[in-house]
Design the sequence.
């Protein structure tokens, strides 16, 4: 080979065979690489902590696909059909139900798991975009009929205790959350539609929202239910797992991602002003902010800490995030039973 190259006698035929072989080998290698990428997402190239952050988005409530519903599909027949898929514990005596919007769905599985430690059977049925109140809909979702059907269904099961939560900030804000550090949720928030004339006739929007929240919770209490009221989860503003991955890839992750607590406090001031007024022997309250804010970094609300990722997107808690307070929610349920 060396002599033919130097003498200008390189065989064109040999050359073509050699190049053809190289091309075939490259194509085969590329196809193998694509298959590996498809099944593994190149995760084998990354630090395990980056892979863990990437997988956090998949760590959602495993009951979500069956038990988180669109308002338009909710019927008594459907709820009876899916009931067995949405219960942890005995189907014969369901004591507790977790209701609300997607934020309720996000915390449901860790809470239901902890309830089993107290021998409490529970069911989770949540409705997309709908807070857990019957005299209310939004400009996007017809929540009132769906919530009424859910109420009737829970009564038929003889449920004693309701755990409720939701993105209550949407009542008072027409836009998504801006965390002041580059994380912005774009798009307009659907406006609430109040079906109670006493509320809808109030002068300003904040007054309507505050009255709606208090009357909505009190309605469940007056109907004979125990209520564990979970306050709103601090919103993040950015997609937390993706943000952590980017910071790690850029070697800029210092073990903490979060925002200033003051931003959250300002965002939820009307919600807290309403819910803090509620009292009753059948009512218990829990604030997720007590577990996410000031606990890891003073005057900040945590989205991640070291290798723990507390959200699976920009505003929903991951199972790990909800697990920070799920046991305490279960304890409040047990307290109401005795």
Sequence:
């Amino acid at each position: 080979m060396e002599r033919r190259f130097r003498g200008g006698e390189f065989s064109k035929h040999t050359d073509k065979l050699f190049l053809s072989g190289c091309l075939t080998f490259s194509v085969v290698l590329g196809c193998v690489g694509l298959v590996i990428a498809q099944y593994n997402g190149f995760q084998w190239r990354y630090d395990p902590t980056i892979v863990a952050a990437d997988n956090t988005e998949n760590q959602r409530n495993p009951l979500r696909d069956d038990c988180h519903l669109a308002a338009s599909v909710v019927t008594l027949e459907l709820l009876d059909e899916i009931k067995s898929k949405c219960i942890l514990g005995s189907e014969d005596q369901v004591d507790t139900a977790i209701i609300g919007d997607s934020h309720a769905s996000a915390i449901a599985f860790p809470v239901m798991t902890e309830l089993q430690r107290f021998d409490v059977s529970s069911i989770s049925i949540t409705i997309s975009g709908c807070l857990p109140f019957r005299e209310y809909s939004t400009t996007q979702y017809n929540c009132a009929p769906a919530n009424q059907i859910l109420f009737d269904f829970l009564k038929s099961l003889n449920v004693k205790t309701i755990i409720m939560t939701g993105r209550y900030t949407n009542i008072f804000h027409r836009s998504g959350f801006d965390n002041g550090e580059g994380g912005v949720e774009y798009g307009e928030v659907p406006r609430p539609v109040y079906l109670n004339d006493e509320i809808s006739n109030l002068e300003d929007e904040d007054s309507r929202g505050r009255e709606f929240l208090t009357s909505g919770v009190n309605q469940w209490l007056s109907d004979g239910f125990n209520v564990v009221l979970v306050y709103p989860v601090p919103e993040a503003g950015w997609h937390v797992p993706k943000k952590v991955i980017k910071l790690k890839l850029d070697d800029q992750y210092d073990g903490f991602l979060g925002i200033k607590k003051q931003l959250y406090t300002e965002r939820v001031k009307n919600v807290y002003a309403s819910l803090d007024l509620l009292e009753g022997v059948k009512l218990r309250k829990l604030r997720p902010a007590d577990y996410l804010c000031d606990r890891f970094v003073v005057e900040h609300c945590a989205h991640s800490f070291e290798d723990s990722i507390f959200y699976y997107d920009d505003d929903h808690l991951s199972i790990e995030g909800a697990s920070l307070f799920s046991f305490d929610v279960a304890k409040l349920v047990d307290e109401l039973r005795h």
Summary: The longest strand covers residues 300-305. Residues 214 and 277 are 8 Å apart (CA to CA). Residues 1-10, 35-39 have pLDDT under 50 and may be disordered. The chain is about 45% helix and 15% strand.
